Amino acid sequence: MDRKKKIIITAALLAVMVLTVGIVGWNTKTLGLHRIAGKDSVAVIHVSGAIVGGDDSPSQLTGGGSTTSGGLMKKFRQARQDDEVKAVLLRIDSPGGSAAATQEAAEELLRLKQAGKPVIVSMGDTAASGAYWLASQGDVVYANPSTITGSIGVYIAYYDLQGLSSKLGVSEEKIKSGPHKDIFSPFRPMTAEERQMTQSMVDSMYNQFVAVVAQGRHMDEDKVRALADGRVFTGEQARELGLVDKTGNYYDALAEAGRLIGADPDDVPVIEYNDSLSLKDLLHSESAVSQWLQTRLGAGADVPLPLLVMKGAWQR
Amino acid sequence: MKERIYDALELLFDTLTRPAQAMMHITAGGQFRTGMLIWAFTIILPCISALVQMRHGSVLLVAGAFVGGAVSLFFQTLLVHGAALLLGGHGQARNLAAAFCFADFPLNFAILLSSLVFILPTGLVQGLSVAALLWAVVLAAYAVRANYGMGMGRSCIALFLPLLIVLGLLAVLFMYIVVEVVSLVGTL
Q: Choosing a second label site near A164 at 20 to 30 A (CA), which of A40, A196, B17, B133?
């Protein structure tokens, strides 16, 4: 290889290194470096999409459009144990989700507050139902004037497929240990007793929801109950009703969090707990990378990533 | 200066692709300033990484990195040079320092990988960083071999001997302190 080519290749390598380290470094914040810097920071934790139960596995990467209670609890816990974090900004853009998943995440959020770290909430497009459950636990709640929020209430849904199954000539036969074991079966009508049992479950969850909101928002339970018929509100309406504190966007909320820790509101030091992907996660057949390759190569769902890559190379 | 930069880039390419020949060329002499250019890059890259991530970095950080790096290079060269002479090698410390400047370059790959830790699997980043460190050690061994005309085995011994001596001294010091403390407790 001649001298000119060597020089060009090496110069390109160095340029790529500098640009990558600079650009990627600018967009990410390594916790280790923050610790060296030793600055008080605001931890920004995102709740995006439906709140569902489950662990904190990052194997889905950005796919799925949901937030797991396991992942949320882990981040709340990290923020609580991180000495550098002095306040938390909870950024919510979620229509809600499972009551139990929300509840266990909210429990960890309360522990974070009890550790003396204020929680500022910023609502994005939507923060309704279970997402409002979480939001109501914030010390200061921000919403955009047209954010969709509220929807305080609970429901349990099930399908009635009797009409369809009779048309198809399909019926369900089952042997059960008790009369209510198949309470949500779509192939039989719910009895009056079962409807009463389900209603009491819904009422129990509803009462818990109302109590949590009343306690979090320092409101009278009756006043919350009057608003908690499942209706949604705009951010502006919610502010007038006391369900949120202020209208403003993400940066208004961040500035408020910054003021609480004594930082410049225009340049608040921020920490985000990103899910790093382990090699095991990547190789797992349920990872987003694997799923993409499975779709492309028409392979089975249980084929591990290395075999998929080999299959791709073979097909070429 | 322009020619020196071109020389540095060409020698760096050769160091990464043909290390044995490149080290022979570097240690033949006259490449100290060329080596310093590559060394400066190896110091600057982690500084860039730190500065952009901390946002509020200062010139002091960069100055500190340069001073620390220079002291480290000086002692590394001095100690390995001494060890190589003890083992019967013949060569100049200045040429060894130039070769070490090039040999440390793979550490930049570890810096690059650490920046990508959020899009690459953690285990992969750690594994490749260790590989980059080993690569730098192998290049350093090539540098010692080329500068002192020794075999690879003796070159490796010369490279690690200072470290072993320092660790040995620390162990002796630790034992001395332990014995002193134990005897002190015994007299009490």
A: A196
